[in-house]
């Protein structure tokens, strides 16, 4: 909490080298590399009668809010939004928790503000969750940059305007920030994250095969209006492919399926993949969906 004691406004930098950003729709919250944008600036408010809790207000005058809306049906993690509730409640309150040179922002219910990485639609999204995978532990770490400081006032002094710090002052005083120690997952996508759409070049020689995939909803339905995502995969086993996709998506317990060309129904892949690094089109079924549970029992 001491990190915010003198802060009037801050920027929060994620482990993906992106800043917590309030979108122009005045509702969504994402990550963006443009830290100089006014949308990446959050005003700090202190909660009365609580020494360890703050609120963060966007440039649109709305509060960073831990909503109850699921980010994706069947997946863990709930949406973080900008809202202006009639009554300020615990959904807009965050407890800063120091972690070496970084900070975790915890909700009143024990979840953490999380900067997601990996493939769309996770890439650049922000949710609140409790990370269970080692590869995503750093996604809840934030580097705090102070952009406006509250000056201490003597009782008789006339209030002065806040001091604007031209050069951002980071509380991560040591040079090793969370962004310097990316997990293998986030690092593997660092080259593509400059573009909002994920593009994979065809593999060359022994570089493996292309795996195109859709993500099914909790009912096993697939929205074909969304372009397939793609990874390059060098293995030959279904278990290995399942682990790879789980790592990329940050979700355990998925089922990798194919669609029957006859009736369009999903069936789980078994054993080995087709030979000669043939390109494949598969469907990822979330672990909590009824379809996924039914497929696992077959």
Describe this structure in words.
Residues 191-200 have a biased composition (Polar residues). The structure is a single chain. The chain is mostly beta strands and 298 residues long. The protein has 2 domains: 2-153 and 160-176, Trefoil (Acidic Fibroblast Growth Factor, subunit A) (Trefoil); 209-297, Ubiquitin-like (UB roll). Helices cover 8% and strands 33% of the residues. It has 3 helices and 18 strands. The protein has helices at residues 184-188, 238-249, 290-297; strands at residues 7-14, 19-22, 29-32, 42-46, 54-57, 63-70, 78-83, 95-99, 102-106, 112-115, 126-129, 142-149, 163-170, 209-215, 229-233, 255-259, 266-268, 280-285. A 5-stranded antiparallel beta sheet has the order 5-4-1-12-13, with no helix packed on it. A 5-stranded mixed beta sheet has the order 15-14-18-16-17. A 4-stranded antiparallel beta sheet has the order 6-7-11-10, with no helix packed on it. A hairpin with a 6-residue loop joins strand 2 (19-22) and strand 3 (29-32). The longest helix is centred in the C-terminal third of the chain and has 12 residues, at 238-249. It is elongated, with a radius of gyration of 22 Å. The model is unreliable at 154-203 (pLDDT under 50).
Structural descriptors:
five-stranded antiparallel beta sheet; Ubiquitin-like (UB roll); Trefoil (Acidic Fibroblast Growth Factor, subunit A); five-stranded mixed beta sheet; 3 helices; 18 strands; mainly beta; 298 residues; 2 domains; single chain
């Amino acid at each position: 909490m001491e990190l915010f004691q003198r802060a009037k406004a801050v920027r929060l930098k994620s482990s993906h080298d992106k800043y917590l950003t309030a979108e122009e729709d005045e509702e969504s919250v994402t990550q963006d590399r443009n830290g100089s944008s006014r949308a990446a600036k959050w005003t700090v408010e202190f909660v009365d009668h609580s020494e360890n809790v703050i609120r963060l207000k966007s440039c649109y005058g709305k509060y960073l809010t831990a909503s109850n809306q699921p980010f994706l049906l069947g997946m863990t993690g709930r949406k973080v939004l900008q809202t202006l509730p009639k009554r300020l409640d615990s959904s807009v309150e965050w407890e800063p928790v120091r972690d070496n040179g970084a900070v975790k922002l915890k909700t009143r219910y024990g979840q953490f503000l999380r900067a997601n990485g990996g493939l769309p639609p996770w890439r650049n999204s922000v949710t609140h969750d409790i990370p269970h995978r080692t590869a995503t532990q750093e996604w809840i770490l934030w580097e705090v940059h102070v952009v406006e400081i509250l000056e201490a006032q003597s009782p008789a002094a006339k209030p002065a305007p806040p001091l604007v710090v031209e050069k951002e002052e980071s509380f991560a005083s040591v040079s090793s920030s969370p962004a310097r120690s990316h997990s293998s997952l986030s690092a593997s996508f660092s080259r593509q994250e400059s573009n909002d759409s994920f593009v994979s070049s065809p593999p060359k020689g022994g570089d493996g095969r292309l795996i195109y995939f859709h993500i099914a909803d909790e009912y096993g339905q697939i929205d074909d209006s969304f372009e397939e995502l793609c990874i390059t995969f060098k293995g030959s086993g279904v278990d290995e492919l399942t682990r790879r996709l789980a790592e990329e998506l940050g979700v355990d317990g998925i089922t990798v399926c194919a669609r029957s060309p006859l009736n369009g129904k999903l069936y789980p892949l078994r054993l080995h993949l087709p030979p000669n690094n043939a390109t494949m089109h598969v469907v990822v079924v979330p672990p909590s969906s009824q379809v996924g549970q039914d497929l696992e029992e077959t």
